[in-house]
Amino acid sequence: MPKIVWFNIPAGDTGRARTFYEDVFAWRIRPFPGMEQEGYLEIETGGVGGEIIPRAHAGEPLTVFIGVPSVEEYAARVQKAGGRVVIPKRAVPGRGYFVICEDTEQNRLGLWESDPTAA
Length: 119
Prior knowledge:
By secondary structure, this protein is α+β, with helices and mostly antiparallel strands.
């Protein structure tokens, strides 16, 4: 059964968001390796990890990522069930691939496929 493996928290001010989540939950938050210039911050919660990302647009939602064996297969399942693909398959070099989808209620969800050979 696929499990939630990651989450993204969009923020207009990633530094302010970092302070908030460190103060409230005592999470360990540091610059995301290789993406420091873009302002991405990696979050360690002691459970499912995530990141604070620069907000792309007003109202951008928090996104949870579900680990699957194949993002292409599960993106097809999403579409067959009435959802849609918002962002097609993209690589995160050295980590894996993701696809961003919407369910039938316009909720965003990410599909994540681990693959250390992703380029």
